[in-house]
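hey so i finally got around to running the thing on that chain from the lab meeting. sorry it took forever, my laptop kept dying and i had to restart like 3 times. anyway pasting the input first so we r on the same page abt which one it is
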Amino acid sequence: MPHSYLLFNPDPNIRQIASELYESIKNMPLICPHGHVNPVLFSANKPFPDPAKLLIIPDHYVFRMLYSKGITLESLGITPLTGDGGLCEKDSKKIWRIFSENFYLFAGTPTGIWLTQEFDTVFGITEKLNSQNGMDIYNRINDKLKQPEFLPRALYEKFNIEVLSTTDGAADTLRHHKAIQESGWKGNIIPCFRPDDVTCLSDPGWRNNINTLADITGIGITTFKDYIDALEKQREYFKSMGAVSTDHGIEEPFTVWLSGSQVEDIFSRALGGIATQEDTRLFTAHMMMEMARMSCDDGLVMQIHPGCYRNHNRMLFDRFGPNIGADIPVATEYTRNLKDLLNKYGNDPGFTLVVFTLDESTYSRELAPLAGHYPAMKLGPSWWFHDSCQGMIRHREQVVETAGVYNLVGFIDDTRAFPSIPVRHDVARRIDCNYLSGLVARHIIDMEDAHRMSKALAYDLSKETYAL
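ok and heres what got predicted. didnt touch it at all, straight out
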């Protein structure tokens, strides 16, 4: 098991307070309102194939570090879009051997903490992975994956997950969600409406995605109004399947309301394949306004994830496609960019906007003041590159004084790596308890406040924000 004082301040007074807080919330159920776990895991409920396919190949946190040290993605089992050409490694044991030999690279990183805890608490592996014991550990994990208690549904229950949201494209049929619901299993797996592939005009498949949206909704899309009608119909369907939120992966949080003729002209150019770069920027900004309007109507929580330059490494994108570990944070601005949206909808009691960012410089300057004022706006936790020990500490230190704890949404794991979910939550709970213990030690809050706040950050805020 992890050391009882893992991540706690070495000061004995603070450490003792943190330990008391942590003991009171460590076993609370997990609320997972945003993530990228594939719902097919739970509809099929088949054994995970092997340790490499479970822990390495799907996890860009893992293979991006290895790639940075000159290890090719092909040697890690990542298949090129053009076919492997005989170069893509298919032997999972060889992939694991490379991982074991280089596991030391993750020392001091959140991935290293997560994996070490995962080996221990999920698989009962207490030894530190290295080149000498790597294959023994592979075989021990592989044997466990064949057992019924390591099937996806059994792990969901073992992890004490109360609800888990996936992320699904606008034109998704949600057939796996439907299969889960019809199976009689009691696990609560819900979809999330992510329309990026039909709202971003620069998406290479935008036109085909529009056609798919038209087919699935039965609405012929020849005008902007048709397009809006189709999106509203899909949102209604997602909501009927349990969805409580939408998600928007935008590079900049720019919002603007265009006139009917302006947006119709842009949409017409897009259908004709002649939309400009400025068209794309304005259309996305207008669609953020439209999505906020729809959320006021249907109650779906609107999440925005700005500040990421996607697919920065063009060579890898051309060869392997997206989500290959080459996304990089960029500077963002919120006060002016969100002004139109917040002035139009930020005071609406029926609207909730959760804002994430990869630009830490905006925490105290813009995001905390905005969330500390507009009733509709909540702050998502430190995200992606910053859901690390120091990243979470920086987030709390920079936003709580201005926004308060109760304008946050607690912890959100935002992961594709299903077995890492409980350890990610555990790390966040430890960090929050340690942060609050410092406030107690400095007599800023008392223990009654600290217990209430630790429970809120671990469970209550996510449950309340997303009405779960």
